[in-house]
Amino acid sequence: MTEVLNLINGAHVPASNWLELFEPATGKTYGRLAASGADEAQLAVSAAHDAAASWRNTSVRERSRLMHALADAIESDLDAFTIAESTDSGKPVGLARTVDIPRAVANLRWFADSVLEFGTERYEMGTRAVNDVLHPPVGVIGAISPWNLPLYLFTWKIAPALATGNTVVAKPSEVTPVTAWMLGKLATEVGFPPGVLNIIHGLGHEVGAPMVTDPRIGAVTFTGGTSTGRTIAESVAGQFKKTSLEMGGKNPTIIFEDADLPMAISTAATAAFANQGEICLCGERLMVHENLLDEVIEGICQKAAELTIGDPLEDGTQFGALVSEAHRDHVESMIARAVEEGGEIRHGGQRPEGLPDRCRDGYFLEPTVITGLDMTAATNREEIFGPVVSIMPFKTEAEAVEMANDSDYGLSASIFTGDETRAARVAPAIETGTVWVNCWLVRDFRVPFGGVKHSGLGREGGLDALRFCTEARTICTALKTSTDNVTQGAVPS
Ligand code: NAD
């Protein structure tokens, strides 16, 4: 039986309270995790606080070396991590093997490398003065991650923090904590000093909340739902704490009349159903030029029908189980509401039949295509975060942009068009953090990532993440000591 314990000050510590671990594919418990609270949060923050001075003074090369060593260790345990991620979350093992775990490794490596180039900036003012802008670490960073891409997003949060010399208290999702716990074991084995990376488990409001409000936490990086993000932002606002909030989405996919249709349909279907629709960047609203509507509906339904739904641990499975019973209940209730709102289910909407015996009680749900609802429907306004796409027609480019922007969210969008001029016009008009043109989920570490409106605050990735984890400190040194130098309002020369 898997037992997920807190990593505090370099050791996994015994727990007195527990939560159950469920395997989504079977609906059965297969282990338990520490159900921590304020006491454990305080111990972890104390450990991180005590380790902070030594870690910040550890050379950047050594920090980078340790992060690469951790990446190597995960890579050599690829199979174990892959199976653990799939078992814990219900995602197909093939996806965990080719996307989640390699990406977690890449997160560690990219920040381990990029921090070597991230140093002091110098701005000279002729003979008058010189400004050095240092980037010391914030101190202790609290990192909170969700269940949908468990290790991928956990490493996305901790890698820039550790690389820049911060110690970390990380709180993975209680729904999928196993691979973070495994990473913690390896971090200790490869030589991360005690207290540099602490990982605490349990319910968000019980252990995450006291962690983020501890005054010794200098910054909070959070990925999860918008309402949780709001709670966290409110709870630390009075402390003027740095926060980076990556939250929910209701992302539009737009197919214009001039699109490469087979490619657009195929990509829009992937955007709707990848990882059972449990990716914040999934395209839940599909807007289609009215002349293409029937063809696109048919194409998306066809793609949904072609997906191999099955045991996530089987190699050929393309579509696994939803992460929990509660989450499947939520998605099913959203489908029921779509019907009440007048929507028509064109594909799916049911629990699939014909699954292997092992998966009889798993949390499976068919990929679902809904039509007939306009932008006033709750189905098109609230995040579902499951394998459900709502398809709507539009007449003009202006209407498509208006529909895309008619949302509280603004995380990402995809547009499909064969006309470069249209792309150049439409992409910047969409109020969102990322717009993909003729593609979806193509990610470069160097570009800023984040959302606008209720989807996020701040940007992560690349330099933005390194800057978030550090405080710019300017040291302005006079180059001559004569009284000319104290002139008010000196301008750069
Ligand atoms: P969630 O908000 O329920 O939980 C996220 C994390 O926050 C968990 O670790 C949870 O334990 C913790 N938490 C909950 N309450 C807390 C509190 N009061 N204080 C501190 N921590 C608390 O989200 P989820 O259900 O795990 O994930 C799904 C959501 O995440 C979706 O809305 C999805 O769009 C979003 N998401 C966003 C991105 C992005 O990059 N924008 C990426 C992935 C997922």
What this model shows, in words?
The protein is an alpha/beta fold and 493 residues long. The chain folds into 2 domains: 2-247 and 455-474, Aldehyde Dehydrogenase, Chain A, domain 1; 252-437, 3-Layer(aba) Sandwich (Aldehyde Dehydrogenase, Chain A, domain 2), CATH 3.40.309.10. It has 14 helices and 23 strands. The strands form 6 sheets. It has a 7-stranded mixed sheet, with helices on both faces. The chain has a 6-stranded mixed sheet with strand order 10-9-8-11-12-22, with helices on both faces. Helix 3 (78-89) packs across helix 4 (93-114). The longest helix has 22 residues, at 93-114. It is globular and about 75 Å long. The model has no long low-confidence stretch (mean pLDDT 97). Nicotinamide-adenine-dinucleotide binds at residues 144-148, 153, 171, 173-174, 204-205, 208-209, 212, 223-225, 228, 231-232, 246-249, 280, 383, 385, 411, 451, 456.
Topology diagram in text:
Layout: E1 2-4, E2 6-8, E3 11-13, E4 18-23, E5 28-34, H1 38-56, H2 60-76, H3 78-89, H4 93-114, E6 121-125, E7 129-134, E8 140-144, H5 150-163, E9 167-171, H6 178-190, E10 197-199, H7 204-213, E11 219-223, H8 226-237, E12 242-246, E13 252-255, H9 261-273, E14 285-289, H10 293-306, H11 325-340, E15 344-347, E16 368-371, E17 388-394, H12 397-405, E18 409-410, E19 412-416, H13 420-426, E20 434-437, E21 452-453, E22 456-457, H14 462-468, E23 473-478
Parallel strand pairs: 1-5, 8-9, 8-11, 9-10, 11-12, 13-14, 13-19, 14-17, 16-17, 19-20
Antiparallel strand pairs: 2-3, 4-5, 6-7, 7-23, 12-22, 15-16, 18-21
Helix pairs in contact: 1-7, 2-4, 2-6, 3-4, 4-5, 9-10
The structure holds nicotinamide-adenine-dinucleotide (NAD).
Nicotinamide-adenine-dinucleotide binds at residues 144-148, 153, 171, 173-174, 204-205, 208-209, 212, 223-225, 228, 231-232, 246-249, 280, 383, 385, 411, 451, 456.
